[in-house]
User: Fold this.
Amino acid sequence: MKKYIQILTQKQTLSTEQAQQVIFGIANGSFNQIEITCFMSLLMMRPICIQELEGFRNAFLQLCLPVDLSDFNTLDMCGTGGDGKNTFNISTLASFVAAACNIPVVKHGNYGLSSISGSSNVLEQLGIKFSNNPDFIKNSLDKTGITILHAPLFHPAMKTVSQIRKDLGVKTFFNILGPLINPSKPNHQVIGVYSLEIARVFTYLLQNTKTKFSVVHSIDGYDEISLTSKAKIISNSHEINIDPSNFKGNNLINPIEIFGGETKEKAAEIFMKIISGKGTKAQNNVVAINAATAISLYNNISIENAFDLALEKIKNQEALARLNKLQNLCQQIY
Assistant:
């Protein structure tokens, strides 16, 4: 690790091969916690470069426990986190809305390490059990339209650094990696990022894959379409700007309206209120616009029509029905 730390302290960048070797070393226990913490801190003091991110991603995908879902035409919705905004679990809610539109969703996620409640925290609060058993994963997707891939169960390197990340309590390059290392390699991805610079890096990487993607970013720093400002969606072949006023005459919403609560229990309470069709207009609209990004990408329809469909799936509790099916399946097996 010392040679890689020296490269960073000299304000140089790692090659793709060097970045891969760092992850291999973390996974096999070659480095101690001080070395890993130092490396993570140095790397986040400047923007990550494309070859570094590519090397990290390649190593994780080589090391991961693979998931074969080739029988399904899948989609993942996942954000980098690390925006410091502490919203409710928007992309997780949007994933259930997408599933209600008959889109097979493979949700890759983790516990919140730089926020109160990550996707795994809120799902665990709601009785969802995590597994890396291939039969359970496929059965879940087949019976409910959605399956959950809890990152530490599939990525040995993620387990190694989980306590370090928790102790640091700030975003690291592992946040950036999360959306890129879904072990099922979904056909479609909606990825939220906290900066336009990261959006450009992601776009470059994803354009060299077979993935159909949309990278989203709100210009005031959210790693999702927050409706607190204008936002940008960058896809394989085009970019569009999202103006909140274009959706049923909505105006900009106040950030407090999408606050996620101070505890995991409160986050779960907010989640259930919204998915049960009892959310506020602001909460419903934020979930709907993010779900619409996935629906538009997957079904090749306008985002305006996708938005209307997403709102319908929230209000008529079809998204809730998907959650209930998943909860029941977990109770039957565990």
Notes: The beta strands are 75-79, 105-109, 146-150, 188-192, 212-218, 231-235, 239-242. The chain has 14 helices and seven strands.
